[in-house]
């Protein structure tokens, strides 16, 4: 599996119990959405290996999962720090005017006057709304991802148009 086919969804925090379960920090909107995928790719530094998902538990601050072939606490603990990825092709299609964060990262952001503000480096969840972190050299702009500001998202063109000033 190539790195560019995989989307990082979280990482292994350590062992959970003594029967080979792992504790997971999920970087998804709903932590248990990882349970929707039958095969997880785990790895470090681009060295990926598939694991079949067997069972999962939703915990207050994380999730726990049993992966096929991971038997015993030592095997689970050895996975600490591994990233968990899912092939992008397995994601369900988003609804119209909805986007996966991973698809927005790297897009160029322009004002409605066609001035380049930079590229989306990451997104943040603030509770009220999501925020685009747009970087241009040393300049970082935080732009609310709301209809009043984001006018268009053109994935194929690699651009987002926003109603946002240079001095905001």
Describe this structure in words.
- It is a single chain.
- The chain is mostly beta strands and 168 residues long.
- It folds into 2 domains: 3-90, Elongation Factor Tu (Ef-tu), domain 3, CATH 2.40.30.60; 101-162, PRC-barrel domain (SH3 type barrels), CATH 2.30.30.
- Helix content is 5%, strand content 48%.
- The chain has 2 helices and 12 strands; from the N terminus they run βββββαβαββββββ.
- The protein has helices spanning 73-77, 101-104; strands at residues 6-16, 21-26, 39-44, 47-58, 63-67, 83-87, 108-111, 116-125, 130-136, 139-144, 150-154, 159-162.
- The chain has a 6-stranded antiparallel β-barrel. It has a 6-stranded mixed beta sheet with strand order 10-9-8-7-12-11, with no helix packed on it.
- The protein is elongated and about 60 Å long.
SSE map:
Layout (H helix, E strand, L loop, with lengths): L5 E11 L4 E6 L12 E6 L2 E12 L4 E5 L5 H5 L5 E5 L13 H4 L3 E4 L4 E10 L4 E7 L2 E6 L5 E5 L4 E4 L6
Parallel strand pairs: 7-12
Antiparallel strand pairs: 1-2, 1-6, 2-5, 3-4, 3-6, 4-5, 7-8, 8-9, 9-10, 11-12
Architecture per CATH nomenclature, i.e. the level-2 architecture of the largest domain: Beta Barrel
Mean pLDDT: 93
Structural class: mainly beta
What's the number of structural domains?
Answer: 2
Spatial strand arrangement across the major sheet: 1-2-5-4-3-6
Percent strand: over 45%
Q: Give a short account of the largest sheet.
A: 6 strands, antiparallel, barrel
Number of helices: 2
Could you give me the name of the CATH homologous superfamily of the largest domain?
Answer: RimM
- Tell me the number of strands: 12
Radius of gyration, whole Å: 19 Å
CATH class of the largest domain: Mainly Beta
What is the fold-level CATH name, i.e. the topology of the largest domain?
Elongation Factor Tu (Ef-tu), domain 3
Note the run of SSEs as H and E: EEEEEHEHEEEEEE
Distance between the termini: 42 Å
Identify low-pLDDT runs.
none
Give the helix proportion (percent range). under 10%
The outline comes out as: elongated
């Amino acid at each position: 599996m190539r790195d560019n086919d995989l989307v990082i969804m979280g990482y292994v925090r350590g062992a959970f119990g003594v029967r080979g379960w792992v504790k997971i920090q999920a970087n998804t909107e709903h932590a248990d959405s990882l349970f929707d995928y039958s095969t997880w790719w785990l790895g470090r530094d681009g060295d990926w290996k598939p694991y079949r998902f067997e069972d999962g538990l939703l915990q207050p601050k994380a999730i726990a999962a049993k992966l096929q072939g991971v038997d015993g606490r030592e095997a689970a603990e050895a996975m600490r720090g591994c990233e968990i990825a899912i092939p992008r092709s397995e994601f369900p299609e988003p609804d119209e005017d909805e986007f996966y964060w991973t698809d927005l990262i790297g897009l160029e952001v322009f004002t409605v006057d066609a001035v380049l503000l930079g590229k989306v480096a990451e997104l943040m969840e603030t509770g009220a709304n999501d925020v685009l972190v747009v970087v241009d050299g040393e300049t970082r702009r935080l732009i609310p991802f709301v209809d009043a500001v984001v006018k268009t998202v053109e994935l194929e063109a690699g651009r987002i148009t926003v109603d946002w000033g240079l001095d905001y």
